[in-house]
Amino acid sequence: MTRTQEFEELRPLLFSIAYRILGSVSEAEDAVQETWLRYEASPTRPTSTKAFLSAAVTRISIDVLRSARVRREKYVGQWLPEPLLTDPYQDPARSAELADSVSMAALLLLERLSPLERAVFVLREVFGFGFPEVASAVGRSEAACRQLAVRARRHMEAGRPRFEADRKEREELAGRFFDAFTEGDIDGLRGLLAADVQMVGDGGGKAPQLPRDIIGAQKVARVLAAIAPLFVRIDLTFAPHEVNGQPGAIFRDRDGKVLSTWTLDILDGRIQTIRSVINPDKLGHVGPVADAWAIAREANQARRPTD
Questions:
Q1: What's the number of domains the chain is made of?
Q2: Is the pLDDT at 306 greater than 60, yes or no?
């Protein structure tokens, strides 16, 4: 097998490691590309290609995360991970577990960890690497990695997100939610939302966004019921689509360009959180991006009463 073939075989794993460490599709793709360059430039073939490449992409991701954390401290409004439509790493036996680990709720929880804790947790708890491999990847002793893993696991378990266990039930509830949203059915929406549901938006200062989180079933239902007919008037469309391993949707303008993605956290038969990513910098990998400001202006015009 050639180096290229070996690398391509492991690319899904490498991307999945990098994305969980970074919470960014574009940065994860860059980290994987840099890993290839290092592998290609290596004068010798490693004993274990998987160990070599996993260590390389982890170290690169840690370095990128350290600088990214500084930028995120200055981020305008709520920071959310870049939406991931499909996780390329497939393991049918652990598909539900892997989907939960890539959810926006889990990635936001990982943001609370230090870069080293985050990397150790991802390698050990998500992908099942042994401590010798983890230690080699992060450049620390096995004993230190065990301590990092304990701290990371404690933080994650304290706030670990829970989701509807039955995938079919989760998808059916999401379907009812989007039907009620399309119809502007405020009572139907309210009946699907948890009492303390939150609606969160990420525009990053580069697109119209919610001035603050909307909290509570009544408030969220009213907002959703109000914007649904407005979306119709300005020819916005949406299609349900799994986003970050959870039910969601992709919203597009009349030309088919991507306006935003929504993800739904569902537990106990109710929607707990609705997260919307509208920052254009985070949507380019989904498809051509719509002009959110132009759409906002058109929406404002559509709101005004006609003579």
A1: 2
A2: no
CA distances from 90 to 96, 171, 200, 220 (A): 11, 20, 29, 35
| 36-83 residue pLDDT tens | 999 999 888 888 999 999 999 999 999 999 999 888 888 999 999 999
Residues 82 and 144 in one domain: yes
Q: What is the CATH number of the domain that holds 9?
A: 1.20.140.160
Q: Is 60 exceeded by the pLDDT of residue 136? A: yes
Give 5's contacts (C-beta < 8 A, 6+ positions apart). Answer: none
261 three-class SS: strand
Tokens standing for residue 154? 């404690």
Element (H, E) at 262: strand 258-267
Q: What is the CA radius of gyration of the chain?
A: 21
Task: Give residue for tokens 């391993």.
Answer: 245
Contact 131, 142 (CB under 8 A): yes
pTM: 0.93
| Residue 260 backbone zone (phi > 0: left; psi -120 to 50: alpha; other: beta) | beta
Which tokens belong to 181? 């949203």
